[in-house]
Write a structure and sequence with these properties.
Layout lengths: L4 E5 L8 H10 L4 E7 L11 H7 L6 E7 L17 E5 L6 H10 L3 E6 L17 E5 L14 H14 L6 E5 L4 H10 L3 E4 L11 H12 L4
Parallel strand pairs: 1-2, 1-8, 2-3, 3-4, 4-5, 5-6, 6-7, 7-8
Length: 225
């Protein structure tokens, strides 16, 4: 299962001094490292690849949260050094075999997540709630850091929580990704979000340290360590 807390967006780290940022994330007791995997086809950008997952495997106690923004993830999951206990999300829009992909991840001991773009309806979840451990709500259109939250994102978070509860899936977590600022995090948490992917808006900020930003963000989402 994907637990409550903060998932640090690694596309926002200082790659010139990754060890420093990783040490700060550990000191801040960040729950997950969020790997944004973009293939330049499903989304208009390239970011982290298999090398990023492998290079940090065994180097940190923080759990891995791997977000596959790629076409046909079923043909690419084997590229990655995935392990039981990892959280792995795939986009409902990226594959015609969503149920098969999610079931395969669960069978391998991973937490399986369904990622939804801002305009993707909740009905795509109708026949996969039994194999989905969490739902990732994109609160921006995926591809780039630093975007503004789309206007109806909070409503979608709330509707997703209601939808899952009505399906008997109260334990299915909601993760949010995109412009998780301090101000927005308060509203996202109130709408029903459990796990917060934090990047330049809420964690890797120029005006405060990672530790200070994490502490402030925890106050906003009411998860204090």
């Amino acid at each position: 299962m994907l637990g409550k807390g903060i998932s640090a967006s690694l596309m926002c780290v200082d790659f010139a001094d990754t060890k420093k940022d990783l040490a700060a994330l550990e000191k801040a007791k960040i729950e997950y490292l969020h790997f944004d995997i973009m293939d330049g086809a499903f989304v208009p950008n390239y970011t982290l690849g298999p090398w990023a997952v492998s290079s940090l495997r065994g180097k940190t106690p923080i759990a891995f949260d791997i977000h596959l923004m790629v076409e046909r993830p079923e043909s690419k999951i084997s590229y990655f050094n995935l392990e039981p206990g990892d959280a792995v999300s795939v986009h409902a829009e990226s594959t015609p075999h969503l149920q098969r992909v999610l079931a395969g991840l669960k069978d391998a001991g991973m937490a399986a997540g369904v990622a939804l773009n801002p305009a993707t309806p909740l009905t795509v979840l109708d026949y996969v709630t039994d194999v989905a451990d969490f739902v990732l709500i994109m609160t921006v259109n995926p591809g780039y850091a630093g975007q503004k939250m789309v206007p109806n994102a909070l409503e979608k978070i709330s509707r997703t929580r209601d939808y899952l509860d009505a399906k008997g899936c109260a334990d299915t977590a909601i993760q949010v990704d995109g412009n998780v600022s301090f101000e927005n995090a308060v509203k996202m948490a109130a709408a029903g979000a459990d796990n917060f992917v934090a990047g330049t808006a809420g964690l890797f900020r120029r005006d405060m340290s990672i530790e200070a930003a994490a502490a402030r963000l925890r106050e906003c989402i009411r998860i204090v360590k």
